[in-house]
Amino acid sequence: MPGPEDDLALLTEAAREAGQIALRYWKQDPETWEKADDAGPVTEADLAVNDALARKLQAARPDYGWLSEESEADPSRLDADHCFIIDPIDGTRAFIAGQEGFSHSLAIAQGDDIIAAVVYLPARDILYTASKDGPALRNGDPIAPCDADIDGASVLTYRAASEPGYWRGGTTPPFRREFRPSLAWRLCLAAEGRFDAALSLRAAWEWDIAAGSLIAERAGALATDRRGGRMRFNSPKAMVDGLIVAGPRLHRQILDALAPAGQG
User: Fold this and answer.
1) Which domains, and CATH codes, for the chain?
2) How many Cα neighbours within 13 Å face the side chain of 21?
3) What family, per the record (predicted)?
4) Buried (b) or exposed (e) across 156-169, using 16+ Cβ within 10 A?
């Protein structure tokens, strides 16, 4: 049975190959269409990357389950001891616009825990990696989060999270809101201290956050759902109830400042 480091090596190789495929379509006006139920855009590049990853990863680990944004749901994954959790291109809108802020997010769950994770930005050649017992690395160098106070903190989140109704007493803390198109990348940016926190107050798909959550944790950040609970992966709904990713002190300050979940 391969261990987490073996799985990490496999994910790393696969992510770099995915990047080569994605860059063939990037800035080349790829075919694009909207998913059903207002689920956002998808391109021929998303599907090409997904197919290549499925072939490589499932051939290498045929007993592992498979959960990907661009694959039909397969309930048999719930019975597997290990499961791939994949977003072939996270930040598809940025990809379509010819921007650099898209990534490949690849993770492996054992039970409901992530044990190996890679987030790769091919247009920038930035590779984040972590295994459950190893360090979090950016292009081979260790990373660590900041642990700022909430006042003036740089928080990667969407505009609506700044609305007063989400915060105790109807008062939004004086943090500085920032944004990057790939959610997986946002978690990694918080993990490496380039920003102080990543925050989402709405449910997040597992494929967007599985890899980034382990990278953040191994860097020394706390990565929880919006209530401060442990994230659990390879779940039937494949969703997590929001997220807070930050150094321990800032994480506590954000959690204390939020209105009880369900408000806002």
Assistant:
1) 4-142 (3.30.540.10), 154-257 (3.40.190.80)
2) 22
3) Belongs to the inositol monophosphatase superfamily.
4) bbeeebeeeebbee
- What pTM does this model have? 0.96
Residue closest to 190 by CA, chosen among 206, 209, 205, 166: 209
Entry field: residues in the chain: 264
- 66 contacts 74 by C-beta, under 8 angstroms: yes
What average pLDDT does the chain have? 96
Segment 172-181, tens digit of pLDDT: 999 999 999 9
Q: How many CB atoms lie within 10 A of CB 217?
A: 21
DSSP the chain: ---HHHHHHHHHHHHHHHHHHHHHHTTS---EEEPGGG--EEEHHHHHHHHHHHHHHHHH-TTSEEEETTS---GGGGG-SEEEEEEEEE-HHHHHTT-S--EEEEEEEETTEEEEEEEEETTTTEEEEEETTS--EETTEE-------STT-EEE--GGGGSGGGBGGG---SPEEE--S-HHHHHHHHHTTSSSEEEESS-EEHHHHHHHHHHHHHHT-EEE-TTSPBP--S-SS-EES-EEEE-HHHHHHHHHHBPPBTB-
Q: How would you classify the pairing of strands 113-121 and 222-224?
A: unpaired
Cα–Cα–Cα angle for 135, 123, 33, rounded to 5 degrees:
115
Instruction: Write down the pLDDT at residue 260.
Output: 86
CB 167 within 8 A of CB 173: yes
**Is 163's pLDDT higher than 60?**
yes
